[in-house]
Design brief:
The complex is a heterodimer of chains A (94) and B (415). Chain A is an all-alpha fold and 94 residues long. Chain A has four helices and no strands. Chain B folds into two domains: 247 residues, Peroxisomal Thiolase, Chain A, domain 1, CATH 3.40.47.10; 146 residues, Peroxisomal Thiolase, Chain A, domain 1, CATH 3.40.47.10. Chain B is globular and about 70 Å long. The chains are: A mainly alpha (94), B alpha/beta (415).
């Protein structure tokens, strides 16, 4: 899966679920401070990422370390390498 | 010894969300024009038992209106809490209370509904049945708990005084306003954002249908179905919305130079202790007498009775018997349920807000579809056509499942 595809899928969650304008979604943005998400939103972000990528995340320790949007992109680049079967299915979607 | 003066309690703001409009002026105008919001809801049929064709007087809120509440606040709201917040925003704006007032700890919030959010409870149940609990939002709990409307409104304004939610089905709003009146009389708060909200869904309809309380004549058009006090009444029409007041201690309102829309003169609530699904005339009459006593008024002081009357055979009969016992045929009586549907936990607040407009215009909105008065509801001064009358003092009833009654007496002119 390309980084561009990962950015597209992650950003969709921020746009649709958190109603953030697309032009706000640049990699350096901090999730709490810049994008104004809070602890309840993080629960929904994890749920949204699980649904979008079909990868279980609740027990994933790395997800606790994300601070910026780029941290999420990088995490999913790593997860894409670990879950090639799931990612192959996602790649078939338009 | 000089007796202390009884505190006076003012209404300084009133907001509504309803199927007839989202300001009390708009709703009043549409009532004058006899506009009816009850519609067939074929889109709800697949959630109803059997081959039933559902109907309701439901709010159709544009998404852009909902989005005037930011996502941060909206994320924890079901529709009932959303309607409450939108109505409260108008009420607070009209009252002129400032952010500093609201966040002083001297302002409270008492708002209730039948349950937190029927649509979100249904969504949660479906998630359980589909084994999709992990997909529910972090805010699902906050949408469905019984005090959802109260804390969502309090959170929206930063209110940090008393927060209560006396959920009592169709008496919820009137009990909330009454409780606000009592809290302020006791000196606990200077003002309270108070009222009720509710949402109607296929499951709500089915709950009433199961108890034979939903209107059931398939030959009538949707707008003919609710006919309080009528000989051929056959059940209620469900509606929804919100009606929220700012209730305020009189001198506090005067010191702010707030416009006073009305005064709460008296309040009472009780229950019949005998029947959870049937109204009871004796306990309704007792409730009205207690409210009159609290207001230090006699029956002849009342200019108009706004009845709860939902168009169910037994409920209307019992309320009519209670009104007849106290007022005979000397006081005009009407019900707004034929126009708005039964807006459940919102009804006491929404209908009270409309009464403010009726009083402002010296006009009584008649009971809709009341062509032939039932024998068991006769002996009252039923208002069947629009009537001009100065409404100085008005009595409002709400009656709820659980055998609950509530009555508030308002002064709406000559303060």
């Amino acid at each position: 899966m390309t980084r561009e595809k990962i950015i597209q899928l992650v950003n969709q969650i921020f746009i649709e679920q958190f109603e953030i304008e697309p032009d706000q979604l640049t990699p350096e943005k901090r999730i709490f401070e810049d994008l104004a998400l809070d602890s309840l939103d993080i629960v929904d972000l994890v749920t949204g990422l699980q649904q979008k990528f079909s990868i279980p995340l609740r027990e994933n320790k790395d997800i606790l370390e994300i601070r910026t949007l780029n941290d999420i992109y990088v995490l999913f680049e790593k997860l894409a390498a670990e879950h090639p079967d799931i990612i192959a299915k996602l790649n078939q979607d338009p | 010894m000089k007796m202390p003066m009884k505190p006076r309690i003012a209404i300084t703001g009133a907001g509504v969300i309803s199927a007839l409009g989202n300001s009390r002026q708009e709703v009043y105008q549409k009532l004058l024009e006899d506009e009816c919001p009850t519609r067939k809801r074929p889109d709800w049929a697949d959630q109803m038992y059997g081959t039933y064709q559902p109907f309701a007087a439901a709010v159709d809120l544009p998404t852009e209106t909902a989005k005037t509440i930011s996502r941060h606040f909206r994320r924890s709201m079901g529709n009932a809490a959303l309607y409450a917040t939108l109505a409260a925003r108008d009420a607070v704006a009209e009252s002129g209370l400032t952010k500093e007032d609201l966040q002083s700890g001297r302002i409270g919030c008492i708002i209730s509904s039948t349950v937190g959010s029927p649509s979100e409870i249904y969504a949660s149940a479906m998630a359980v049945l589909r084994n999709e609990l992990q997909a529910l939002s972090s805010c699902q709990f906050f949408k469905i708990v019984s005090h959802s409307s109260a804390f969502n409104v309090a959170n929206y304004f930063g209110i940090c005084g008393v927060q209560l939610s006396p959920c009592s089905a169709c008496a919820s709003a009137l009990q909330s306003i009454g409780l606000a009146y009592e809290q302020i009389k006791l000196g606990h708060q200077d003002a309270i954002v108070a009222g009720g909200s509710d949402e109607t869904t296929p499951i709500v309809l089915e709950s009433f249908r199961f108890l034979n309380a939903l209107a059931k004549n398939p030959d009538w058009s949707p707008c003919e179905l609710s006919r309080p006090f009528a000989e051929d009444r056959c059940g209620l029409v469900c509606g929804d919305g919100a009606g929220i007041f700012v209730v305020e201690e009189w001198s506090h309102a005067q010191a702010r130079q707030a416009t006073i829309l009305g005064e709460i003169l008296g309040y009472a609530t009780n229950c019949n202790g005998a029947q959870i699904s049937q109204s009871d005339g004796a306990s309704i009459a007792y409730c009205m007498r207690q409210a009159l006593k609290d207001a230090n008024l006699n029956p002849e002081d009342i200019d108009y009775v706004s009845a709860h009357a939902t168009s169910t055979p037994s409920g209307d009969r019992e309320e009519a018997s209670a009104i007849r016992e106290i007022f005979g045929d000397t006081v005009p009586v009407s019900s707004l349920k034929g126009h708005l549907g039964h807006t459940l936990g919102a009804s006491g607040g929404l209908e009270s807000a409309i009464i403010l407009e009726m009083a402002k215009n010296d006009t009584i909105i008649p009971t809709k579809n009341l062509a032939r008065i039932a024998e068991d509801c006769a002996g009252l001064d039923h208002v069947t056509f629009r009537r001009q009358k100065r409404l100085r003092t008005v009595l409002k009833n709400c009656i709820a499942f659980g055998g609950v009654n509530a009555t508030i007496i308002y002064r709406l002119a000559d303060f």
